[in-house]
Amino acid sequence: MNDISNNSGMQAYWMPFTANRQFKAAPRLLARAQGMYYQSDDGRGVLDGTAGLWCVNAGHGRRRISEAVAEQLDRLDYAPSFQMGHDKAFEFADRLSRIAPAGLDRIFFTGSGSESVDTALKIAIAYQRAIGQGTRTRLIGRERGYHGVGFGGITVGGIVNNRRVFPTLTGADHLRHTHDPDRNAFSPGLPEHGAELADDLERIVALHGAETIAAVIVEPVAGSTGVLLPPKGYLQRLREIADRHGILLIFDEVITGFGRLGAPFAADYFGVTPDLMTTAKGLTNGVFPMGAVFARRAIHDALMTGPENAIELFHGYTYSGHPAGCAAGLATLDIYAEEGLLTRGATLGDYWRDAMHTLRAAPHVIDIRTLGLVAGIELRSRPDAAGARAYEAFVDCFNRGLLIRVTGDIIALSPPLIVERSHIDTIVAQLRDALSRIA
Ligand code: PMP
């Protein structure tokens, strides 16, 4: 294995967040990937329990996607997307509009989840202005929400570390999060308690006035902060309150989109349709950095069909609708459709849930949450070192051939949707062993 700390050729890469600090002490290099497995640079197979970073939903090394990208790059490698276009972007948007939750059939392409979030927030504000609601500029997020790292995203996000040293947009406010292990620990499905937390939006309306609020954004299932599930009825209630006050509802489906919950989108799973929906990750099976914002047609039309001097959406990216990304996305959608992956979590979800819940008796486990093919396993924190137990499990699992993700003292699992029962059994067995070894 390369010795990163002594190899001056490997000092230049500034890794995201503060990964270098840990990486220098214990480098973990991935060299190859195929199907459900990574291979580390010392040749070990590592079962991918996290679909990369919640994105490789169709599994690794899909030849169909790489061939589509190669073919596209040979034919048309790049095309400006301002005032002109290319066939693949129109085709991809059209295909997406057909699997979108009802009515969300206008698609704006971005380069990442963070860009999708900032795009959706800007669309919300521009739309409010276009319909004569120009005082509505306030954005509402939720505690423990993660919406990427743009200034809009960290403003509505609710992870303190992401905001500690940065100024955020003015006027934002936050709903409380819905994580309540005291009342809901080990719920086999959605938590029973907590729908009333949606009334926080009423409280915020009473405080600031509805006429100041443009939109509220939530992850239907909060992913990065540890798989926090919405209590039964919570999202419906949020939808009702937002409607009552003319506030746009945005679902951040960067993680939940493209089959994670056993339905194409969380909006389908919960039967609640937002006004705007942000996606990325599974959009291209993680192989190309790309995101997409799905918008209600009326929102698009208000910004696109007004008179010449009307408010328009002055916003876009050099890489919006990139030809290679669209080719990757189209091939990805083909695979999802042919292999039934967007609903695979509906059939395999019970097996996944029951397997995960066998860990209830394992040491340190204080809650288990699953939905579709995602799981969060919460450990009791070590009093002297929060997060230490989960990190220990992560290192132990990786060394023994399983990739998990940890956030604080929560283990998050989200395997590629091609996962088989045998993989699930392996994940659970390895985790059980790892938990039993933790101090
Ligand atoms: N929103 C959510 C819900 C996410 O989980 C993430 C990434 N984990 C983002 C936004 C940001 O996406 P990206 O890292 O592609 O900018």
TrEMBL record:
GO MF annotations, alphabetized: adenosylmethionine-8-amino-7-oxononanoate transaminase activity; pyridoxal phosphate binding
Domain of life: Bacteria
GTP-binding recorded as keyword: no
Origin species: Sphingomonas lycopersici
SUPFAM superfamilies reported for this sequence: PLP-dependent transferases
UniProt-listed CDD domains: OAT_like (cd00610)
Keyword Transferase on entry: yes
Descriptive protein name: Aspartate aminotransferase family protein
Keywords tagged on the record: Aminotransferase, Pyridoxal phosphate, Transferase
Cofactor(s), by name: pyridoxal 5'-phosphate
Family that this chain belongs to: Belongs to the class-III pyridoxal-phosphate-dependent aminotransferase family.
Gene Ontology process terms (BP): biotin biosynthetic process
